[in-house]
Amino acid sequence: MSVRRKGPKATAIRIITYVLLVVVAVVVVFPFAVAVTTSFKRNTDIFTYPPSLIPKKDSTIPAADVGLDGDPVPVFTFPARDDRPGRWALVDADASLAEFRPLDDLERVIVLDVKAGEKTGATVTIDGEEEDVFLVDDGGTQVEAYRSRLTSGGLFVSVDDPSTSVLDLVNFATPAREFGPRFANFTEVLAEKDPETNGKGVGRSLTNTVLVTILVVLGQIITSILGGYAFARVQFKGRSTIFLVYLGSVMIPFVVLIIPLFQLMLQVNWRDNLVALIIPFAFTAYGTFLMRQFFLGIPAEIEEAALLDGASRSTILWKVMVPLARPAIATLATFGFLYAWNSFFWPLVIINSGNPDNAVLSLTLSTLGGRSSTDTNLVFAGTVLAMTPPILVFLFAQRYFVENSASSGLK
Amino acid sequence: MGLRDRGPRTPRVAVDTGVQLVAAWHLVGVAAGIVSMLLASRSGDDALPAVIKLFVQVFSIAVTVAHLAAAYGTFRRMRRARTVSLVTNYLLFVVSGSALLHQLGAFTGIGKFGTGLNKAFLPFMVIVVGLLWVLVAGQLLAKKPLAAGPNGLRRAGWGLVALASVWFVIAADPSGMLSMIGDRITQPLTLGTLAVALCSGAATRFMWQRRVAVHFGTSASEEQTLSGLAFLSPNLIGFSFFFAGPLLFSLVVSFFEWKTTGTGRSFVGIDNYVRALSLDLSSSDVANAGNEVLKPGYQVLMHLDWFGQNWVLGARDVEFWISLRNITIFLVLAVPASVLPALVLSSILASRLPGMKVFRAIYFIPSVAGVIGVAIIWGQLFQSTVGWINYLILRAGEILPFVDPPAEGHPWLSSNSTALLSMVVVFAWMNFGFNTVLYLAGHQSIPKELYEAADIDGANVWQVFRRITVPQLRNTTFYVLITTSILALQLFDIVWILSTPEPGGPNNATTTPVLALYEEAFQGNDQGYASALAWVLFLIIFGFTFAQFRQQKDGATSGGVS
After folding, report:
1. Is residue B562 one of the residues assigned to a domain?
2. How far apart, in Å, are the Cα atoms of A73 and each of A45, A179, B479, B509?
3. pLDDT tens digits for B34-69?
4. In chain A, which residues have their Cβ closer than 8 Å to the Cβ of B530?
5. How many domains does chain A have?
6. Per the structure, how many domains does chain B have?
7. What is the dihedral of CA A39, A44, A48, A52, to 10 degrees?
8. Domain C-terminal end among A179, A194, A227
9. What is the mean pLDDT of residues A231-239?
10. Which chain B residue is nearest to residue A31, measuring alpha carbons?
C-alpha cells in the first residue's frame, strides 16, 4: 500500500499501522510466552489466580541471616497484620503453641507460646465444657481468654530485625514468593517413564521423532531429486501421463489413505513400529514437483556439455544438477522436516499399543497433555521442547521457506 | 570437467555368454513362477486369505509371462527383449531386495535402532553439529574461494564427525542387532531370497550396459525411456505402493463390510454410502417427538418448526450428520477469521516499511510450531478458573464500559455454545500467518503503477485498499479461501486435544467428519463404513479443489497470479 507520503496525516497512518502490527504480534507471541514461562513453573504455581507470566518459588534466606546454622529458612509475610510489617523467617515450624480465644470475641484467635498466660482461677463454660480463664497479652493489652487448644506452629523471626520474633500458626502466614524457575521440569519430562521419579519418557519420544524426521527428510530428498530429474530432463514414454497422475495425487486428502495404509501396515507387520512413520512418507509428489521446477530452470547447455564429455546421466545429476539445486533441496528439507516433526494423525493411528518405546513426540505430548493430565508444568516443558526445533528450523530456513510456501500453490 | 563415467571395474563378461546366462536365468524364473502359481492355488483356504491368494496368483502369472517373454526375446536377440528383461529383473530385484530386508528385520529394526540412538543421543548430536559445521564451512568456502582457512575448518568438521561416529557406535552397542541379522541370514528362505536378489541384480546390471544395448540394437528413445523410468522408479514404486494402491484399495473397501480383525468381510454394494447419507423427514404433532415418528433405524437429528408445523429430521448415522453440521459452522467462521486478517496484514507488510520482515516471520511461527503443542497451550489459556482468556476479559471489563464479564469464569471448552468457537480461534490463530505470506506473493503481481496513479489522484488509504488491493488480489483470495477451507474440512488434531470431556465433546458439539471416521475405523472397528465416510469427505473436499482448478484455468487468461 502507498504509505510513503509525507505530512502529519501520513505519519498518523504510519503510527496506527505499526500499532496494529504490534498488537497482532503480541497476540501471536503471547501464547508462546505463556508456554515458555509455564514450562519453568511449579505445578501449584500454574493453578493460582490471577495468572502470571513469572515462574515463582517460595523465598528462603540463609539461616545465618537470622543468626542460625543449617539449611536456608523459608520466608513469610503477614499481609493482614499491620503490626507485623516486612518479611519474617520461619525458624522453627514445630514450636509448641497455644490458641487462646478472648471471652469478648470467641471468633478471634490469639496464638501464643504454650507457657503464656496466667490463670485467673475463674472458669467459663464453652460448648458445655468448663474451661479455665487466662489473662493473656494481646498486642500490649491484657485480655481474659480461654485456651481453646494446644498445637504446634511456627516461630517467626523478623528478617529486618532478627531480635524480634513472633509465634503464629504457619497457615496464618503467607509464604513470600520470588522469581525462581524450575529447571527440573525439563529433566523430569525427558527422563525415562517412571512413576517414582516422575519421569515422563519424552526423551525417548524425542529420539524417535529425530530419527523419523531425519530418515523421512533424507528419503524425500533422494526420491524427489531422482523423480524430479526424470520429469524435467529425460524424455521418456508415458512421462506426461505419469506426471498428470502425480499432479492429481496432490488433490487427495490424507484421510482417504488412512484406512488402506493401516491395512497395509497390518499385512507387512509394521503396525506399532517406527518404520510405518518413515517408509510410506519418503515419497512426496510435492517434493518431486519442486525439484522438477527447479531442474527445468537450470540451462540445458550445462548438461549437454557434460553429456558430450561422456558423463552418464547419474553422474550429471549428482555432480552438476544437485549442487546447483541446493536452494530447492533446502526448501524441500524444511518442508519435510516440519511435516515429519509435527505429524500427529498417522502416528495416532498406527503407533497404538501405548508402548512408549515406539511413540513419537506429538503422540506422547497428546497423551501427557490430554484430559487426564496432572503435571501441567511437565506437559509444558515437553511442549516447549517439541516446538523449539521446528521454530528454529523455520527461522533459519525462512528465506527458502516463506518464498516457496507462496509459490507452491500460485503457479 | 572430468565427468567421464568410469563404469564398473568388474571383469567384463563376454556379451554373448552373458546374454545366454540371463536367458537361462529367465527360464529359471518361468519355472519358479509356475511353481508358485501351483502352490498358491493348491493351498487351502485357511492357509491364505482369499485376497492374498488372488494377489499371489496374479503376481505369479505376471512373473511367469514376463520371464517367458524375456527368455524368448533374449534367445532370439529381439530388439525389445532387453527392455523387457531389464524391467522384469529390476522389479524382481526390488521385490526380492525388500523381502530380504523384511526377513532380516531391517524395517522393523528401525524401532530397535531408536533404542540404540536413544542410548547414544549425545554422540549423535555431536555428529549432527559436525555435519552442520561442515556445511557452514562449505558455504564459507564457496563464498571466499581464496581464503585458506575454511578448508582446514571443514577438515576439522569431518574429523569431529568421524570421532563422534566411533563414539556413537560404542554407545549405541549394535552387537544385539548384528547377531540377530547373523541368525536370520542362515535360514533357507532368507538365503533363497538373497540368491534371487543377487541374480536379478547382477542380470539388471549386466543388461544395463551400453555394449549390451548395442548388441540388441536398442533405439535411442527406448534408451531414454529406460533411463527415465530408472530415475523415476524409487519414487514411482513408493508412490504406487503407498499411495495409488491404497487409494484403490480404499475405494474397494468402502463397498464392503470390513472389520479390522476377524473374518467379517462381505460385499455390501453401496450400503455403506446409503447408511452414511440417509435422512428421513417426517412431520409430527408434538414439538419434541422422539425416534418413534421416524423410519426404523433412524434417530432424531434435529427438530424443525416450519409454519407452525413440527418436523423431525432423522438420520441413520446421526453422529456423522452432526459432524457435517459442525464442520459447516466451523468453515463459515474459521475461514474468514483466518483469511481476512491475512488480507489486511499483508497489505501493510507489502508496503516495505522498515521491520516488515520481522513481523512476517512472527506471524508465520504459529503455523510451523506444531498443532499438538499449540492446542495444549490454548487449552491452558481457555482454562475457566485460572486461564488467561477469562482473566483478560475480566480486566478488560474493568477498563472498557462495553465489556461485561461474567462473574464466574466462562468454561470455554466445556460449554456447548463456545467449544467449537474456541476451536475456531485456535485454527485462525494458527493459519492467518501462513495466509498472510500467500497474500504477500499475490501483492508482488500488482502493478506498482496502479498505486502511483492512486497516489497522484490523492486517494486515501481505505480507497486504495478497497479499489486497488482487494480487486487485484481477487485470484489470490480465491486460492487462499479454498486452501484454508480444505484444511478446515479436515479438522481433527485441535479437536482431539481440546475437546472435553471426550473427543468431540461436549455432547458432540465439536465432532468433526474426520473424528467420526477415526472413531468408526479404529474404535468401532468398522473400516468398510469408515472408508465410505472418507470418500464422502473426499468428494466434498474435491468440490473445493475442483472450483479452484476451474478458477486457475480462468485466471490464467485474465492476468491472474502467475
Report:
1. no
2. 20, 17, 64, 52
3. 888 888 777 655 555 666 677 778 888 888 888 888
4. 259
5. 3
6. 3
7. -30
8. A179
9. 87
10. B377
